[in-house]
Amino acid sequence: MTIDYYNNNAEDFFYNTVEADMNEAYKQFLSYFNNGDFILDLGCGSGRDSKYFLDKGYNVTSVDLSDELIERASKFIKQKVLKLDMLKMKFENDFDGIWACASILHIPKNKVSKVLSNCFKALRENGVLYASFKYGDFEEVRNGRFFNYYDEASIKKVVENSEFILEKIWITRDVRLGRENEKWLNIILKK
Predict the structure, then answer these.
(1) Average pLDDT of the residues in 130-158
(2) Cβ distance 129 to 97 under 8 Å?
(3) Where do the Methyltransferase domain residues begin and end (predicted)?
(4) Total number of domains constituting the chain
(5) CB-based burial of residue 21 (10 Å sphere; 0-12 exposed, 13-18 middle, 19+ buried)?
């Protein structure tokens, strides 16, 4: 269902997200890395974040599950985006960091621990995972897309049941025009 939404609305989604200013989150995430480190952009969407990391000198592997977004993002970042289901990914010790901006939020809560386990395996020692979720504590289908919502207490429970250490948690406002009243939960987890 969610993949169908992105395949059918790829053009609008691309143009509505590609210019979003993510500098605050970039600054928090990139403070853990050195130039040339390896980053997995998990659910890269438009490719906005992959392009930013590539332009800053990082080695980036970009993945998504929507064929239409893969096509657009590949053209935008000028490198191939891989088709990958985060529930089935098999990377092992390949990345210094994983950037999961508004992507794990499409996974049902009862499967988020599987995604975190896959991310843990994919990271090198002391690797870092950034993830963002819509703020709240529920799940819903809205306009053809599934979303999970987390607040501070509910995400802490998920992290406590994972192998990760919760490094940082903070709340931001949506950076897209007209959505300033929407809140996001941001986390950085460390291996």
Answers:
(1) 96
(2) yes
(3) 39-127
(4) 1
(5) exposed
CATH number at residue 23: 3.40.50.150
Report the chain's terminal Cα–Cα distance, integer Å.
32
Within a 10 A sphere around the Cβ of 155, how many other Cβ atoms? Answer: 21
The whole domain housing 11 covers 2-190
Which phi and psi (to 5°) does residue 118 adopt?
-65, -40
pLDDT band at residue 17 under the 50/70/90 scheme? confident
> CA 150, CA 136: separation in Å to the nearest integer?
5
Note if the pTM is more than 0.85: yes
Instruction: Round to whole Å and give the CA distance between 170 and 185.
Output: 6
Could you report the per-residue pLDDT of 73-120, keeping only the tens digit for each? 999 999 999 999 999 999 999 999 999 999 999 999 999 999 999 999
What pLDDT band is residue 179 in, cutting at 50, 70 and 90?
low
Q: Which of 143, 140, 141, 186 is nearest to 166 (CA)?
A: 186
